Amino acid sequence: MPVDYFYPDYEVERNYDRCIVCRVCERQCANKAHEYLETANKMVCDDAKCVNCHRCVSLCPTRSLKIVKSTHTFKANANWSGKTIKELYHQAESGGVLLSSMGNPEPFPVYFDKLLINASQVTNPSIDPLREPMEIQTSLGPKPKAVERDAKGRIVNNLGPQIQLNLPVMFSAMSYGSISYNAHESLARAAAELGILYNTGEGGLHEDFYKYGPHTIVQVASGRFGVHKDYLESGAAIEIKMGQGAKPGIGGHLPGAKTVGDVSRTRMIPAGSDAISPAPHHDIYSIEDLRQLVYSLKEATEWKKPVIVKIAAVHNVAAIASGIARSGADILSIDGFRGGTGAAPTRIRDNVGIPIELALASVDTRLRDEGIRDDISVVVGGSIRSSADIVKAIALGADCVYIGTAALLALGCHLCRSCHSDLCNWGIATQNPELVKRLNPNIGYKRLVNLLTAWGHEIKEMMGGMGINSIEALRGNRLMLRGVGLSRPELDVLGVKHAGE
Amino acid sequence: MRQEGQVRIPSGCAVVGAISRTGKVFDGERMIQSIAVMHDRSNGLGGGFAAYGIYPDYKNYYAFHLFYQTPAARAECEAFLDKHFDIINLSKIPTRKVASITDEPLIWRYFVMPLPTKLDASQLDDREYVARCVMRINSQIENAFVVSSGKNMGVFKAVGFPEDVGRFYRLDEYEGHCFTAHGRYPTNTPGWWGGAHPFALLDYTVVHNGEISSYDANRRTVEMHGYKCTLQTDTEVITYMIDYLHRRMKLTFPEIAGVIAASFWQTIERRPPEERAALEYLRRAFPSYLITGPFSILVGFENGLLALGDRLKLRSMVAAEKDDMVYFSSEEAAIRAIEPVLDRVWAPKGGEPVLVTLEQGG
After folding, report:
1. Residues of A whose CB is below 8 A from B264
2. Residue A344 Cα distances to A97, A104, A176, A357, A383, angstroms
3. Is the pLDDT of residue B361 over 60?
4. Which of A154, A326, B151, B330 gets the most CB atoms within 10 Å of its CB?
5. pLDDT digits (tens, 9 = 90+) for B84-110
6. Could you tell me the domains of chain A?
7. Contact B214 A371 (CB under 8 A)
8. DSSP letter, residue B334
């Protein structure tokens, strides 16, 4: 039907003066946007197939390619955007739920960009991280309520299992299946080298990666994919996934196309089957049920592993967090509505949940009001884009952050948001062996190490500027932040003053 | 213009402390002479003294020093005290006119004991009971401020140069075995005497030189445990942290030093295993009580005095000994002014606590 014809969003512009018809673009494009026209000995392309992933642009030896936004437009309408109209046509044709990947791209406020960081002048010296120690290592886990001593009066170590991190960043849950073997290997090796942790996501742990166990968080999600005793015991911590920022209220989605080979074996499900996790955990219909799962997992692992409970940032997040802090969980992880995903219903991704900055601030405030902030550590993600976001998140009250999208970008992701198609040209979000091998884990892990090494330097510089030489003195130190262009209710929730106040 | 408590005011300072290990008493005039040497380290916007052992006749009672801005605040506060305590004695604190000290509040002193029935009903020990009452007065009774609340000790402070403050309070008429003094250099013009140092809760007093960068992290942590930082000063939050760690968590002062001025991880790693385990525990168990940024503090308590500086040594602190006397000061000259010949003078390292306790508990 003609109504289903869409002029492409992006156009591939080829400079024919430069093109040498080497056909690299054709070989690199899994979406088959480029084609060699033998009769004319020239390259042509179908813009409609282009996802704007820049793979061809990056590999074109003569820089003859660029991708530009199409100027083609619907009649201007402030209510019915072109995107809305096209999505409607799609659904009228297919009768299906719209699927999307990666985090919410809509123009909601990014509060991190409206927060500014303090620095020392005169009354208090800034500290130079090139010349003085600057501590960014941290440990996650509850703090004791009382000090215990032995008969000789010496302090007894009554700290429960803790996670030790060389910097306050971890790689967030991305399942084997949603991302490739090479992507997982890159994350695991980088975590080990950096002295931090990565997270298996809900797809189980490939047998090759058990050796990175001390740097691994193993996830238990509602589908229980790949969960067994050895798996639980292999990691440094266990994360119960109650929710995900990209799709609060529903479970994980792995398209059948990606459930192949080792992925199906690791998940312990048949090859080719869609792995759709249940929306809730069917053994957790309330907070007291969560407590039972937390304790079951602790029992199963002899109380040696901290248990993390991950939730999506939703409206009532502060009260939920308070319940979780009293559930026996050691660490709370909150995922903001900008958090990434390998596949999510578009409407949910773009309309459900709240910004992580507000969720974090309200959770931290609530836990402190109730005097239980030290009973649980708080990790936030969705979305942390830079070292400045980390500094701001910690000053708002986080112990540590999770990065997912940022880590994938370091591996080459260009945020084309087509992960669900299994055609990732960068070898990250695909199980196609030809594509997977494009991501070299020897290079990938190094880029992750580079990224976080750079961020570590930047965090130290910003801390030194504030006269703070240890990350724990930044945590919850909201006086180090000021808001710009924020309303009074926004400032109140964030618990920060406006710039100039 | 907003007054202290509504706005956070950083300040630089001078501190001095003196203690007799044997509990020998000396008068406050010595401290006035000592702190006066460091006149240029303060700017006339705050000075004060903490004195220990000054109320031997009432040593079993909590001595409350109070500031009232209005007679109504006094009436309200006295009603509160009457309801919660046996008031053994009450009086104005004697002062003398000093030209440079103006706008004084009503300054009162009460010797009190918790009412046994109230104390029983609260299910608290008497120190916690007193501490909570102090918090309630400071946060809920407008224009009333508890300056100090310990036994056999008191804090005397005002807006002015410390030597003038000492003369205003007739400190030469008090004898004690331990004094600390403070001259303040705030970067603003507070009109409120409560903001001067020392800051006190129960018998803990703190004088402090510095501006801590961890303030809000520390404040938000202690406020979880019932403390209310009404003045927004570093000294206030440090006092509450010390009260929490010493009285409630029962850490020793050297252990507290390992929390608030924790050694760097790289230093801890080089310690012998047992010490290393203890230091690691303290950092991991109490991370939010770490203080960063410049500070040197003198902490007075029931039977001793602690001197502690930040781990980078960003503020000066000199210690000295002469016979049974131990002195601390921002500058050596302030000690020499009252004790010209010393047995030993040294500069404690950053983060290294110097703890002086009374022999036989005083």
Report:
1. 133, 135
2. 10, 10, 16, 22, 16
3. no
4. B330
5. 999 999 999 999 999 999 999 999 999
6. 2-96 (3.30.70.20), 166-472 (3.20.20.70)
7. no
8. H
Q: Residue B216: closest CA among chain A residues belongs to which residue?
A: A477
Q: What is the pLDDT of residues A390-423, one digit of tens each?
A: 999 999 999 999 999 999 999 999 999 999 899 9
Helix segments in A326-373, DSSP class H: 346-351, 356-369
Which residue of the set B13, B77, B133, B229 is catalytic?
Answer: B13
Written as one string, the DSSP assignment of B32-69 is HHHHHTTGGG--SS-EEEEEES--GGGTTSEEEEEEES
- Search chain A and give the residue with CA nearest B274: A154
Contact A231, A221 (CB under 8 A): no
CB-based contacts of B182, cutoff 8 Å, min separation 6: B13, B14, B15, B16, B35, B46, B47, B48, B49, B157, B162, B196, B197, B198, B207, B208
Which class would CATH give B11-59+148-361? alpha beta
To the nearest 10 degrees (0 to 180), the angle between helices B126-140 and B71-84 is 160
State the CB neighbour count (10 A cutoff) for residue B29.
Answer: 16
Give B68's strand partners: B106, B144
Determine how many CB atoms are found less than 10 A away from the CB of residue A265.
14
The reply to whether residue A473 touches residue B251, judged by beta carbons under 8 angstroms, is no
Read off the pLDDT of residues B123-133 as tens digits, 9 standing for 90 and up.
999 999 999 99
Q: What is the pLDDT of residue B13?
A: 82
User: Nearest residue on chain B to A398, judged by CA atoms?
Assistant: B217
Are A470 and B292 within 8 A, CB to CB?
A: yes
Q: Domain-by-domain residue ranges, chain B?
A: 11-59+148-361
In angstroms, rounded to a whole number, what is the distance separating the alpha carbons of residues A81 and A64? 32
Which among B210, B216, B285 has the least Cβ separation from residue A478?
B216
Interchain proximity A146–B10, CB inside 8 Å? no
* Residue B10 pLDDT exceeds 90: no
- Residue A430: per-residue pLDDT: 95
Q: What is the per-residue pLDDT across B149-184, written as a single tens digit (0 to 9) for each?
A: 999 999 999 999 999 999 999 999 999 999 999 988
- Please give the structure tokens belonging to residue A194: 């950096």
**B285: nearest CA partner in chain A:** A143
Q: Which of A368, A477, A479 has its CB closest to that of B224? A: A368
- Tokens of residue B161, six digits: 């140069």
Query: Does residue A9 have a pLDDT over 70?
Result: yes
Q: What is the pLDDT of chain B when averaged over all its residues?
A: 92
Q: Do A147 and B251 touch (CB under 8 A)?
A: yes
Q: How far is A394 from chain B (nearest CA, A)?
A: 10
Q: Residue A124 and residue A131: Cα distance in Å, rounded? A: 17
> Which structure tokens are listed for A466?
């504030």
> Which helix or strand (DSSP H or E) is residue A300 part of?
helix A287-300
What does the DSSP assignment read for B67-113?
EESSHHHHHHHHHHHHHHEEEEEEEEPP----TT--S--EEEEEEEE
Q: CB of B333 within 8 Å of any CB in chain A?
A: no
Burial class (CB in 10 A: 0-12, 13-18, 19+), B346: exposed
Is B221 in contact with A124 (Cβ distance < 8 A)?
no
Dist CA B59 CA A262 (whole Å): 77
Say which DSSP state B244 is in.
I
CB atoms A470 and B262 under 8 Å: yes
Q: How confident is the model at residue B2 (pLDDT cuts 50, 70, 90)?
A: low
DSSP A160-172: ---EEESSSEEEP
| A404 three-state secondary structure | coil
From the list B196, B195, B194, B191, the residue with the least C-alpha distance to B180 is B196
Residue B13 falls in the annotated catalytic set: yes
Q: Looking at beta carbons, which residues of chain A come within 8 Å of B293?
A: 120, 124, 467-468, 473
Q: Tell me the backbone φ, ψ of residue A336, rounded to 5 degrees.
A: -75, 165
